[in-house]
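Quick question: what would this complex look like in 3D?
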Amino acid sequence: GQNIDQPTEMTATEGAIVQINCTYQTSGFNGLFWYQQHAGEAPTFLSYNVLDGLEEKGRFSSFLSRSKGYSYLLLKELQMKDSASYLCAVRDHRDDKIIFGKGTRLHILP
Amino acid sequence: EPEVTQTPSHQVTQMGQEVILRCVPISNHLYFYWYRQILGQKVEFLVSFYNNEISEKSEIFDDQFSVERPDGSNFTLKIRSTKLEDSAMYFCASSVSTGANYGYTFGSGTRLTVV
């Protein structure tokens, strides 16, 4: 099975940088995803990591360390619209599905 | 940008009734999924579907649930006899592949309320 842990809530200030951590345990690993979900809406795909290292995409970056079972999502130059839940999700190489963590609710203060 | 379309956006049904939730995946996608999210909880996997058959299902997806791809475009989730605890947001998702960096594209969801 899989176990995914991420903080429940975080607060940051507009214009600042925030890092959301995720740790996971899985019997096999075939990629880690980050999704953004605004309240009442569908998850939207942000990033994918399958190899160790940093993937940068505009204001958002995602890092993976497979040996540590660890990832983080880094959000720079925070904007009010970044207030949302951020979902860490893992795919097992044997499975045809991705499993989500409980999500981190990010509050942005002006 | 291509979208996954779900209908209806809201559905209210009486306990014990059957409901069918409909989805139109992105046209060149081959893998289809249903997830659900009970209010305030995490997104939970229900079932995956490929090549006209279920490839994987979770413990939640019991005999009350079924999926179908009746034609080349629709993908449906049926709940045979709804229970109060089936109240949730149901998301359909599709993917062109299970490999590489293909994330799932989610539809906007159907909010199911069982009364």
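Answer marked as accepted. The interface with chain A takes residues 31, 33, 35, 41-45, 48, 50, 55-56, 58, 89, 91, 98, 100-109 of chain B (CB under 8 Å).
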